[in-house]
């Protein structure tokens, strides 16, 4: 029951249909679940090229839903593997272009890099497809660095440019700069988590944040504050402020003990108190940055603006 993570780089639509279609046909022929999450026009062309019995058996989902946020995508893949266990699941997915300022590109690269270890015990085959006609040099380099196997003209082969999680394991001292628009709202992390939750709920209501965003803020900060009290310095602070397309919340721990910027992604984290809280936090927020040094740890949470309530979690969309 080993997870596989492969990339197909293609410059011709026929090449995409041949490889991706072959994966889906093989899965359906073996009675295994098959999921397709690519650009709409590409999905339609691929399904039209498949035998009707195969096309009807493929579960099609919106790729924007699957790639909603790094932590939520990882949870979705975990959940779909568990839902269909013990069957092996085939997923063909096309990452959408990364939009927005830092840390968007870096956080998606971190997720791709850690998938091989985060999902290593799941019976799931993930094929990431990339149209090289639309990739900039930086994105192309990131694909090579984060996928252990590439699909070439002669089939799958080990990717010697793969760097793995180690390339993203160094904790930065400070987060990427973002403009601050308006006041910075602060709260202290003391011994009363219920009081902190009430204060954040009241603050969210005063700022007229959407209800779902307030809920996410309270859950995420509560998990991080619990880590500060149980595993960190026992005290710290919370700062909430507005940037141009998001709300940003920073949780500071006066101890610098959280050193892994990939914490909350790894499978073992689910059984450790600190990692479990970060696992929840990564699903609640759009992006999570872990920074700091020996003088303290800063976890920055990003809540992106949405036209409406956040879409149904990809984990729910992937289940029957």
UniProtKB/TrEMBL annotation:
Keywords: Kinase, Serine/threonine-protein kinase, Transferase
SUPFAM superfamilies: ATPase domain of HSP90 chaperone/DNA topoisomerase II/histidine kinase
InterPro entries with a match to the protein in the record: Anti-sigma-factor_SerPK, HATPase_C_sf, HATPase_dom, MEDS_domain, RsbA-like_anti_sig
Pfam families from the UniProt entry: HATPase_c_2 (PF13581), MEDS (PF14417)
Membrane spanning stretches: none
Keyword Kinase attributed: yes
Keyword Manganese: no
Domain Histidine kinase/HSP90-like ATPase: residue ranges: 192-302
The protein's name: MEDS domain-containing protein
Start and end residues of each MEDS domain: 4-148
Taxonomic lineage of the native organism: Bacteria, Bacillati, Actinomycetota, Actinomycetes, Streptosporangiales
Secretion signal, residue range per the UniProt entry: none
């Amino acid at each position: 029951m080993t997870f596989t993570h492969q990339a197909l780089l293609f410059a011709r639509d026929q090449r995409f249909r041949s490889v991706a279609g072959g994966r889906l046909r093989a899965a359906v022929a073996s009675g295994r679940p098959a999921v397709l999450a690519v650009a709409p026009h590409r999905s339609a062309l691929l399904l039209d090229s498949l035998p009707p019995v195969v096309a009807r058996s493929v579960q099609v989902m919106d790729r924007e839903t699957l790639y909603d946020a790094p932590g939520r995508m990882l949870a979705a893949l975990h959940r779909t593997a568990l839902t269909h266990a013990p069957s092996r699941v085939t997923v063909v997915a096309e990452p959408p272009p990364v939009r927005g300022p830092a840390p968007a590109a870096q956080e998606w690269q971190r997720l791709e890099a850690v998938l091989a270890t985060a999902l290593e015990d799941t019976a799931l085959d993930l094929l990431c497809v990339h149209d090289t006609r639309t990739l900039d040099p930086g994105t192309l380099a990131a694909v090579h660095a984060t996928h252990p196997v590439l699909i070439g003209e002669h089939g799958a082969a080990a990717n010697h440019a793969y760097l793995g999680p180690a390339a993203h394991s160094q904790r930065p001292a400070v987060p990427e700069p973002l403009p601050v628009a308006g006041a910075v709202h602060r709260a202290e992390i003391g011994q009363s988590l219920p009081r902190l939750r009430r204060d954040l709920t009241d603050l969210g209501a005063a700022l007229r944040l959407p209800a779902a965003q307030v809920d996410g803020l309270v859950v995420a900060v509560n998990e991080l504050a619990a880590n500060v009290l149980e595993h960190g310095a026992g005290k710290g602070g919370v700062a909430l402020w507005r940037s141009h397309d998001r709300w940003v919340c920073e949780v500071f721990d006066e101890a610098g003990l959280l050193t892994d910027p990939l914490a909350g992604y790894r499978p073992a984290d689910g059984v450790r108190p600190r990692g479990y809280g970060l696992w929840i936090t990564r699903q609640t927020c759009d992006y999570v940055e872990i920074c700091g040094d020996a003088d303290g740890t800063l976890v920055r949470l990003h809540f992106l603006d949405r036209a409406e309530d956040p879409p149904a979690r990809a984990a729910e969309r992937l289940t029957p």
